[in-house]
Write a structure and sequence with these properties.
13 helices; globular; 361 residues; alpha/beta; two-stranded antiparallel ribbon; Rossmann fold; DNA_Partitioning_ATPase; P-loop_NTPase; 42% helix
Length: 361
């Protein structure tokens, strides 16, 4: 990939457009979003050693941070150490609010952690901007900055993550090679979720074959783009973000791929309701491609809906060990004092599905 120089606007560099920035989000919880983000980011980093890969944990639960920083126990301890130093995404937002609400601090790159230095199981080209439970508090700080009478206050308040990313991309102490970002967001459309939307240029939508997940997809399209899939009357509250983004000339991210997570291993045994919901997700995608093709990335993918099998016990092992999926072995792992078996067939099946998604990123 050819290197791209960042534009300088008002003395501060903008984000490098050629770098891919994936928002992993659905306006619905329980769809395996964090586990998917972890697997895609880590396996993408392993498959693309010539790039830097960055995970941004924009979820107060901070689960992806704990896995990357060492897994259960160790990862939590390492994350707490970073929180104590305010070296997290929430730490940055709080510092901006206190000292420089509308302009960069100059130390943005220091908030990114090279994962390998904390957890040597991680690929050397993986970085993390750690999450923080205080993000919920930060939601109010972001809104307060955005309500300032200063010109473009809303845009600047929603560009805090843009400032972090752009500074990291252009930091001369970090390699100038291509960088790919994965932003793990909370299911709610809080103001800190808006930071992720504004900073991204592509969206991966994790979903499950159920009615609630389908509603989440419809809400996502309505909240970000102001488009009603059902062509129902729009509630003005749903349009607030889209209106502000358009007024502030913000380029919105494009839909890239839907990942049907936790799919049944054997579809012949799936219930009729499960099948009908899975078909509904495909129908929504096809209809959107026909009626609103401009909402999608330009890539000619053979299928916009991918399937990733449920990790089952593998998810528990990976979360506990803080280890890449592709490095798991067919053996028994000890989790909280109990033996848990990782089965080769199960590892291979999940790895194949994850690789299929990674290959289209």
């Amino acid at each position: 990939m050819m290197e791209s120089q960042a534009k300088i606007v008002g003395g501060a560099p903008e984000m490098i457009e050629s770098n891919k920035k994936y928002l992993v989000w659905n306006n619905k919880g329980g769809v395996g979003k964090t586990f998917l983000t972890y697997n895609l980011a880590v396996e993408y980093a392993i498959a693309n050693p010539e790039e830097d890969v960055v995970v941004i944990d924009a979820c107060p639960q901070s689960n992806v941070s704990e896995i990357i920083l060492g897994g259960n126990g160790t990862g939590e301890e390492n994350l707490n150490n970073l929180r104590d130093r305010n070296a997290t995404i929430a730490g940055y937002i709080k510092e901006r609010f206190s000292n420089s609400p509308l302009s960069r601090l100059g130390n943005e790159s220091s908030y990114f952690v090279r994962a390998y230095t904390v957890n040597d199981k991680m690929p050397e080209n993986l970085y993390i901007l750690p999450g923080d439970v205080d993000l919920d508090i930060c939601s109010r700080l972001i809104s307060h900055i955005g309500s300032s009478p200063v010109k473009e206050a809303w845009k600047k308040s929603r560009s805090l993550l843009v400032d972090l990313i752009a500074s990291f991309e252009t930091d001369k102490n970090v390699s100038d090679r291509a960088k790919t970002f994965f932003i793990d967001c909370n299911p709610s459309f809080a103001s800190y979720t808006e930071l992720g939307v504004v900073a991204s240029n592509r969206i991966i939508i994790p979903c499950t074959a159920d009615a609630a997940s389908i509603r989440g997809i419809k809400n996502l399209v309505k909240l970000i783009y102001g488009v009603s899939i059902d062509k129902s009357e729009q509630d003005e509250m749903f349009l607030d973000f889209n209106k502000e983004a358009n007024q502030n000339l913000i380029t919105l991210p494009k839909l890239h791929v839907f990942v049907q997570n936790r799919s049944r291993t054997n579809e012949r045994d799936a219930a009729k309701a499960f099948k009908s919901h899975a078909e509904e997700i495909k129908r929504i995608t096809i209809d959107l491609l026909k009626t609103h093709p401009h909402l999608f990335t330009d890539e000619k993918l053979d299928e916009r809906v991918k399937n990733v099998k449920d990790g089952n016990t593998l998810a528990a092992i990976i979360t506990h060990e803080g280890s890449p999926l592709s490095k798991l072995q067919h053996k028994s792992y000890t989790i909280y004092g109990m033996a848990t078996q990782a089965n080769k067939a199960q590892i291979d099946a999940l790895e194949t599905d994850v690789t299929t998604v990674v290959n289209c990123l």
